Amino acid sequence: MLITALIARLSRASIASLALVMASPVALGETVFYRYVDKNGVPVINSTVPPEYAQNGYEVLSPSGRVIRVVKPAPSDAEKANLKSKAELAKWDAELRRRYSSVKEIEHAKKRKLESIDGSIQILKGNIGGIDTRIHQKHMEAADMERAGREVGESLLVQLKELKLKREVTISRIEKRKEERKALIAKFDQDIERFGIITGSGS
What we know:
By secondary structure, the chain is α+β, with helices and mostly antiparallel strands.
C-alpha cells in the first residue's frame, strides 16, 4: 500500500503522529498527502509539493493512500501555442460567420475594398503628375534666369527642393498602398478559403 511506503520513510515520532492523524475522524477529512516525481524520476509522497515539481503534475492522496485528485502537468510551450492557435481560429470562425453568409459576400467585400485602394492609388498618381508639371515649370523658370545671365533665386531653389520632397513622399504613399493591396488580397483569400471549410461550401 502507498501508506506503507510513506510510513517507511518517516521517523518513529512521525509514525506516531501519523497514527494519531489517521485515528481522528476530522483529520481524515482534512489531511492529504501529495505524490509527485522528483528529478531522478522517483515517486515521492510528502505533505507538500516543491514548486519545481508542481508544474509537472501530481496526485493528491488521502491518508489511506486513495487518490483524491489528479493535478495534470502544466502545458508545455508547444501546447500553449496550440491552445492559443485554437482559440484564435475559433475567434476567426465566429467573426466570419457573423459578417458573411456566403463566399460571394466575401468576394463582393474584397472587390469593394480593392476598388477603394485602387482609387486612392490613382489619386496619388495624379498628384505626382501635377507635381511633375510644377517641377518642370520651375526648371524652365530657372533656365530662363540663367539664359538672361541672372542667378537663380534662393526662393526658386527652395520651391524645387520642396516639390521634389513632396514627390518622394507621394511615391512612398503609393508603395504603401500597394503593399496594403497585396495584404488585403491575401487576407480575403484566406477568409474565403476558411469560410468554405467551416461551412462546407468549398473555396
